[in-house]
Amino acid sequence: MNELANIPEFGIKRENEEQRDGGCAVVFDPKTQKYAVGKNVGDGIFRLFGGGVDKDEDMKEGVLREVVEESGLYDFLYVEEIAVALAHYHNNSKNVNRIAKATCFLVILKSPELVKAKLEEHEKFYLIWSTPEEIVANWEANNKDKNYDHYIYFLKKSVVRAKELGYDTTSNLI
After folding, report:
1. Above pLDDT 70, what percent of the chain?
2. What's the CATH code, domain 9-164?
3. Packed helices 132-141 and 149-164: angle between N→C axes, nearest 10 degrees
4. Is rRNA-binding given among the entry's keywords (predicted)?
5. Residues 6+ apart with CB under 8 A from 162
6. Distance set, CA 168 to CA 27, 48, 113, 162 (Å)
7. Contacts with 110 (C-beta within 8 Å, 6 or more apart), sequence order
């Protein structure tokens, strides 16, 4: 049986898609009741922290490594795999069409303390704190090419789980 058969699929299939499996994290600070996202320099589009995971790297470890490198956040209290999806999207920073088996983790912070972020040359964004409603509104306003459908799916599932765990007490997204 095909391992991808029961995985939801998002986005628009594009020509010449490169496969690059990886993951992302929905990062929540229970003290401020806000979610951490990257805000792109220039267009202001939000993004989840994450990226491609090396072939021999554990998915969870790889995603947490990416969170630390891209955001500087490192003090994690709780981490749980939330969902897996097949995502078709255009990677604007590398100007390539991608297909990815993407795994999303909910990360609850112990504290929002930071270490210095280590962005790669193509990564042009910075950490901001926002509500789920503001994040979804940002993605929906910039989603004509369906690049953010999987992010919306991941965020909504993460908010539901954060609420179930008693961490998110204010969001009205769900």
Report:
1. 97
2. 3.90.79.10
3. 170
4. no
5. 28, 106, 108, 168, 171
6. 11, 18, 19, 5
7. 75, 76, 77
What are the boundaries of each domain within the chain?
9-164
Q: How confident is the model at residue 94 (pLDDT cuts 50, 70, 90)?
A: confident
Tokens of 9: 């699929």
Amino acid at 47: R
Which tokens hold the place of 139?
Answer: 């993605």
Mean pLDDT of 53-78: 95
Radius of gyration of the chain from its Cα atoms, rounded to whole angstroms: 15
The number of residues making up the chain comes to 174
81: left (phi over 0), alpha (psi -120 to 50) or beta: beta
Distance between CA atoms of residues 18 and 21, nearest Å: 10
Of 85, 56, 79, give the one whose Cα is nearest residue 67.
79
